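Worked example

This section walks through a single chain of length 267. The input is the sequence exactly as stored; nothing has been trimmed or padded.
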Amino acid sequence: MDASQAYSLIEHAIDEERVPGGYLIVGDLNGNCREIVDKILLKLYPDGQEQIKESLHPDVAILEPEGKSRTIQIKSMRERIVVPMSAAAYSGGWKVGVIYGADRMQPAAANAFLKSLEEPTPKTLYLLLTDKPDALLATIVSRCQRIDLPMPKGILEGEYADRIAEVFGGGVPNEVYEKMQAAKYLAAILDDAIDAAPKEEAPVVRKAFFSTIMAYARKWMEEGRLPLHQAFRNVEAVEEAFARVERYLGAESVLSFMMDKITLPAK
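Given that input, the structure is written out below as tokens.
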């Protein structure tokens, strides 16, 4: 189903106060998953949007992977989800716990969260967002209603994909000079791809460009070609670079930042 259909399903459950233990939403973490979360929070807290934007709303608990390992540790789980979600709602209404990248929970964190999921307080809504549902604890999955959203398919093809493969397909030495040269080459690829597309499609091309690079980062992770903490750091670097270029920062500086953070696997 698409994001609108998924939101309608959850909205109806909220109105009927027949919400399952949690919703496992599988999709694009920075796209349709966030779109649904934004709509739900707007519905439940129409007057609290500024607090939500600053992560200060007392009835909304949000947790994302953190640290060099890009994982969710038990300490953060307890402090940001378990304890806040066990307290009474400040507004007297719903409490919402949002976990981005739920597949990155460490075993101890997952077990701590499972207890909250099994014994929720009234009017409690958990939203678990992931693009790798198979990596979650099976007992958590079994207690959630799963919603599958379309995964992004937009990646570059043809000449541009081949040129990106020159950088990431065979592996580039991890020395600073080679990385900076690679960043310049990638910036030229992005500029060429945008110049070749209609002006109104520039945002689509930018996203496809970074989705193509992300495909390599995730492939290295899935194949175990890098230690897990380095693989997660690569994913984070690509995500952050995309966010920066969306703010219209210079492509070459953004890609230099990204390449400085990335560790490439050996050939």
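What to look for: The chain has two domains: 3-148, 158-261.
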